[in-house]
Here is the input.
Amino acid sequence: MNCAEVAEYINTKEYQELNFKRETLVINPPKACQPLGAIFCASGFEGTLPFVHGSQGCVAYFRNNLSRHFREPFSAVSTSMTEDAAVFGGMNNLIEGLQNGFTLYKPKMIAISTSCMAEVIGDDLNSFVIKARELGTIPKDFPIPFAHTPSFVGSHINGYDNMLKAIIAHLTQGKKEKKNGKINIIPGFDPHVANIREIKRMLNLMGVEYIILSDSSDVLDSPQNGNFEMYPGGTKLEDTADSINGVATIGLQKFSTMQTIKLIQESFGHEGLSIYPPLGIKATDGFLMKIKRLTGRSIPEELERERGRAVDTATDAHQYIHGKRFAVFGDPDEVFGIVNFLLEMGGEPVHILTATGTKQFGDEIKVLLDSSPYGKQANLYIGKDLWHLRSLLMTEPVDMLIGDSHGKWAARDAGIPLVRIGYPIFDRVNLHRYPTIGYQGVINLITWIANTFIDEVDRKSDDAHFELLR
Amino acid sequence: MQGRSCWGGLAGLCDRDRENFKFQISNLKDTHTINLIGEYNIAGELWDILPLFEKIGINVLSKITGDSTFKEITYAHHARLNLLVCGRALINVARGMEERYVIPFREVSFYGIRNTSSALRDAAGFFEDMVLMKRTEEIINEEERNTKRLLSSYIEKLKGKKAVVYTGGVKSWSIISALKDLGIEVTACGVNKSSLSDIEKIKSLIGEERILKDVSPKNILEAIYSTNADILIAGGRNQYLAYKERIPFIDINQERHTPYSGYKGLVRMAEDIVKTIYSPVWEIAKKNAPWGSVKVSGYQSVRAKKV
Here is the structure.
C-alpha cells in the first residue's frame, strides 16, 4: 500500500475492526498520570509546595502541561532521582529535597506524591518522612502529607483523589471539635477553575458557609499585578483541618473523589456524598436541593431567576442542538455531565469514550443513557484511546466532537468541529475561566455548542446561502 | 451577477418600450415558456422549484424577481403563461401582462405536496401537449412517492398535531395545505396581511371561525391556548413570544433561513417542526424550579384561565 492507500484504508470498517483488536499498543491515550493530578490537587492548598518524589523530567512535563492549560506559572519540585537512586533507594534524595524545598521556597506545607521510578523500587515515603523529622531536616510539626501515586496505575484523577485524601487525613487528625456549620465541597479534578468560583458564588447567594477542599481558583487564575507569587491562594490549612467539623461533604465529581469521600464517610462522622457534576439544569437543581437539605438554607430568588435565564437560553437555542449527533471523550465525571446535559437538550451522544472510566462508571452511565430516548444509540467505549475514536468518527459519523484539545486531529480528519471541554485545552484561550457547571454553565455550554454549529453552517455556505439570520 | 432577490418593483421594467432592450435569446422560440411572478427565492426556495420545471420540460423565462437579472425581465413578455406565486404583492404585474401582452396567469403555490403537484399540472396542462402532460404526471408520481417515503417517519410524529398559523405574507392557505400534507391541523390562522381571495381560500380550508383578524400577541396566545395547539408557525417577531410561553415554533416569514417550498422543502419543514415540537427542552421549561414558588403573571394568567 502506498501512502494514499493507507490514508484511505484507515477510514474503513475493516481497519476499525483491527484497530479495536489492539491489545498491547495504546495510541494517543486521552489521559495523564497520577502525579499530575496529585500536584494539581496540592496546588489548591495555601502555601503548599507540590513535591514529587521521582525523576526531574516527569515534573518538568507536569508543570509544562498544567501551565499551558491554565496559562499560569505552576510551581512544583522533584527529588531529582537518577540511576543511583534507582539502585540504592531514594531516601537521600527525599530528605535532601525536603530540606531544599523547605528552605528555599518557605512553604506552609509540602505535599509529596511519587512518580514511577520511586514506585518501581518501592520507596517507603512514610519511613523517609519520619527519618527526615528525626534528623531535624524539617520541623516535627511541619505538615507533610504524602501519597503513593504510581503513574502506571490509574490516571490523573486517581492521583488527585489519593493526594487529596492524604492531605485531608493528615491535616484533620485530632482536630475533631464541635460542628462548625459549614459544608465541605470537593471540586474534583476540574480543569475549569471558574467552576470553583461558580460554586462559591451560588453558596454565597444562599448564605451557606463552606470550605472548598483544594481550591485552585486563586492559584491557577491569579490576577496580573506585576508580581509572580509562588503561593497566590488556596484553601487555608486551618480550614482544611476544620473540615472534619463540617455538617457534610459533597464531592462534585464522583469518580475522581471516591477514596477521599470514603475516608470522610468513615472518619468525619458526617454525611459524605459524591454527586455527578451539576452540569445541566436538572443536575444543578439537584445540587442546590442537596445544599438546601443539608444546610436548611433556602434558595434565593436570584438563583431562581438565573435558572429561568438558563432555561430561556435552552429554549432559544433548542433547534440548534436537538437531534444533532455527538461524540464525547474525556474523564468519566466530565463525560457523564456532558452526556447528561446533551440528553437534556435532545442531543444524541453516539460515541462515548473514556480512557479513565471504570466498570462502575460504565454501569451508571448506561442507566443514564437508557433513561432518555436520545441515549438509545449511544455506544460506550471504556479504556479506549483517540485512535479508536478516530475510527469511530470515520465509520459512523457525528456532527460534533466534545473533548479536550487532543481531539482536534480526529475531528479534523472527520471534518467536524471540536468543542473544547475538559483537560487539557492548549489551543484556545480562557475557556477554563468560564464555568461549565451551574446555570451559568448551562448558558456557556449552549453558547459554545450552538454557536459552533452555526459557525459551521456559515463556513460551509456558498455565497447564495450565506445568511444574516441563522 | 446572480442574486437571491431583486426588488419587486423591477418587474415594472417589462412595461418599458421593448425596443430599448435588444436581446437575442434562442430559447424564446420555445413554445413551453412561463414566468414565475412573485417568487422571491427566499432562503433559496426557487432553486428547489426550477429543477422541477426543467425536468418536465417547461422553460422558465423570467423569475420575478428571485435570482433574476435585468435582462431576463426585459423578455418576460415572450412567455406564454405566468405563474403567480405571491398573489398579494404582484397581482398587478400579472394583470398588467395579461392586458398588455395577452399572457394569462394562474395562481399557484409550491408549499406542500399537493400544491406543488397541482402547480406543475396547471402549467403543463396549459400547453395542450400530451407528451408534456404525460411526462409531468410521471415526474409528479416519482417525486410524490419519494417525498412520501422521506416524510413517513415525520408524519408518524406529526399526525394529529395542531398548529396556529400567522404567516404575515406567505400565502397562508398554501401553508395550511402543506401542513395538512404532514397531518397537522390548523386551528387558527392570522389573516391581517392576506388578500381577500386568500382569506376566502383560508375560510374554505379551515372554516370562518378559525380565522384570526386581530393578531396581537395576546390574541395569538389565546388562540393557541384555547385550541390546545402544539406549535406556532409565524414570523420571527413572534418567535420569542412563543418561546417565553414554552410553545414550539418555526419561522415561516420572509426572513426564514430554511427553504420550505417544493417537495424537498416540505421534508425540511417536517424536520424542523418535529425538531421543535419534540425538543425535550419544553419538558424542562414547563417544570418550575423544584423549590420554586409558582408565580402566575402576564400571559400565563390567560393560559391559567383557559386550561
